[in-house]
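Entry 0007
Protein: Adenosine 3'-phospho 5'-phosphosulfate transporter 1
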Amino acid sequence: MDESWLLRFAVILLAYSTLGLPAYLVIRYVKKRHANPGADDRRRNCLYDFLVRFSVGLDRESYLPVATDEEPAAADEPPESAPPVPGERKQFLKNCATFAVCFLGIQGTLIVMGLYQERLMTQGYRKTSTEGTTVLEKFGDTQFLMLMNRLFSMVIYGAYIFYNHRRQPPHVPPYYVHSFTSLSNTMSSWCQYEALKYVSFPIQTICKASKIIPTMIMGRLLRKERYSMVDYLCAFALAGGASIFFLASSNGHKSAPGAAADYSWVSGIILMVMYLSFDAFTPNWQKSLFDTKPKISKYQMIFGTSLFSAILCVVSLAEQATLFSSFEFFLNHEGFMQDVFLLSLSGAVSQMFIYTTIQKFGPIIFTIIMTVRQILSIIISTLYFGHGMTWIGIVGFVIVFASIFAGHCLKYQKKKAGASR
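Output (structure tokens):
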């Protein structure tokens, strides 16, 4: 019998609560004890020190730079007649080069990831039985692939942090803050796949093309980021153009196999709202961590997020009773281990470009890059296979890039006008 999505969602939350509830109680206990000035510090040990770092973090004031009397009072504010900074043009060119590297890196690594994901989920792998016969079997557990991806990232970036620990800043925030990124990332993926059972592909396409709007709303709520009316107009134009392009390109595309014949619109809308909320929360929360002072490095964030994501994947696989069977498939099928390694490698490298983009340019630019990535992939596919593109799709394409160009030109003019005052 097919359970409802609400029951499956409750089961997932129940499984995660077996870790989250004890962790919450530990955090409350450690915070209460750490805040008590009469606590007996002589009973502290390595385990308690780790729990303090996990629950409370380090003393932020001890790691902030201290202002001295030798510095001039108006050091941060140059006089009105000060000439422009000589390195401003050099910094602009450096930012452009960084953006180009991040854009190309995200496109390249995610394209490779998509190819290997399709290969792993659709291609059969050979297994030699004890009788000497060869059997061709397919693998179908995406959670295990996600687990291997996270474990690979942990190994790479954990080794980098270990060997370059002197160059890493102190991790002042408590460790548990990275669990929110892992949870929101996991739940957004689940809601996206679950929603295809209740809404048509075009409806989901429109929602995915409009991610920039909830990203801006979440930035306003979570980081108190202020956006002008021009920013919102450009965002709506970009979302509308992307929706037109995707709908024109997906003409005749149907829902995923197994989708309900009569769509339950209430369930579908709720799931898509949840997907957009989780998906908008993730980059904004990452940006808020990058903005904390003293700053933490992107390597620390990738390692922390990968660690909590791996724990959530293990819980999910254990709940489904597929953890050991997946590892058995991983060890006993020819070529499977190599493909998983290449998938995980491309995923680990993509994390570097993604976190660098969010750190330097913010979640809005990252969302735009991901939208443009989807558009370019459709254009490349259209050109490669010789499919025609409708004039409606071309109109949507022009609207998307016109809104991006207009938004950046207006921001530049506003910044230039403010500097000339």
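Curator remark: Residues 21 and 151 are 24 Å apart (CA to CA). Confidence is low (pLDDT under 50) at residues 68-84, 252-263.
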